[in-house]
Fold PRC-barrel domain-containing protein.
Amino acid sequence: MGTSMHTTADGTVARKETYDLIASNKVEGTSVYDRAGERIGEVHNFMVDKVSGQAAYAVISFGGFLGIGEDYFPLPWNQLSYDTSVGGYVVDIDRNRLDGAPRYARDEATDTWRGSVDDYWARPVLI
Amino acid sequence: MGTSMHTTADGTVARKETYDLIASNKVEGTSVYDRAGERIGEVHNFMVDKVSGQAAYAVISFGGFLGIGEDYFPLPWNQLSYDTSVGGYVVDIDRNRLDGAPRYARDEATDTWRGSVDDYWARPVLI
């Protein structure tokens, strides 16, 4: 694992690798924004492959502002980009597509949602 | 992403993928055992690459039984194996090597420990 150096905006030199890492419990609670910069919710938790340690889904929770309380929707991890300027994750997906995504109630087993989530996000976008 | 089927010990067929995933907040707090089956502590949290979502280190916390309270030691993620029979992670490392591993006090920045942790675990084992 090499150490990569880079120069930050304020001219200081930092080890890039430091900024690449985030503590799991800090991901939980991080804000998630849509492509318009509107906050759509926060990361409730994320699902990790036990063996490889690879994150597979970020589970987004959102409150009452859409009129839906306590709902969670899992997004494939690769749909999220970390944006240091907002200190959160940005999801570059059309709002209608997000709103139609499968969601589930608190503490539902992975079993119950994984199939539909994979199907939904593998489906081509209809415009 | 294919669905892999397997038969469990009690004869039921399950989708293997379900058991591959664990929620991030469930990893936190999971017990960690040494190769002798002795509990050495628990996962405090784990450090994830923000972009790729790949877990890099599991940060193990352990209490007073070694006489060291509130200490954390980061282990490269690939040193941990999940063992369903104990419901926790097993670290197949000699106890002396574990005891000599770098540790840090609560809430220390990744900066301060990453170099020494990488150096320690990259070093060949001296017997």
